[in-house]
Design a protein that fits this description.
single chain, disordered C terminus, alpha+beta, 10 helices, 235 residues, 48% helix
Length: 235
Amino acid sequence: MGATDGQAHQTPTPGIFRRHPKGCAGGRCDCSHVFVWRHRGKQETETFRTYAEAREAKGSRESGDRRPVARVRFREYFEEWFESYAGRTSRGFSETSRDEYRRVMAAHVLKKWGTWKLADVEPAEVQDSLGAPRRGGKSTTEIKKVRSTVSVMFVIALEGGLLRSNPAQGVRIPAAEDEGSEFNAGKALNREELGLMLSAIPEEWTLFYELLTHTGLRISEAAGLTRSTSTWREC
């Protein structure tokens, strides 16, 4: 595969080509990228939607990571996972809440990502899924539902070996422009929202955030706790 076939062109990264099946001139077209390597003397290829994904796959293969990228579609995985999700609290996840979370996912995520492969979603697109409803005037409560749902789903997909990384990790809800908005006023999470948040937190931080939840301590106060008697007396 190379520039001479008239359909694929070498990129700056060796082994990664841009495929132009419609004969377009390249540039800002939406044509796919192909990563080509040899395994046991046989040429292997894998197609990616973006150049960044192809480079990540090349880097992972060269570093010894052989985990496959999931071919499952986003909507297919979401529906299967969401129907069986039971929440992280003893009260579980009510059907009323399930209907509401499905509504916000359909409105802000599924209509765009539904036909994509699960592994096609990138952090910038997760960020846009939170920024678009903010720009559209949606409430912070609704945006939090999108953030918590996609976070938990990607965590579970990553743990199941379907992804190489979690595209929702570290993505934040954009601040509202109006300082008097709901975002800045703050709002306590209900049990179901809390369960979704705890599900999205790395396991090693779960206990710390549960401490904050049950005690009402600020992060700085909890971080300052020690085993000394004097410290506990001050608390």
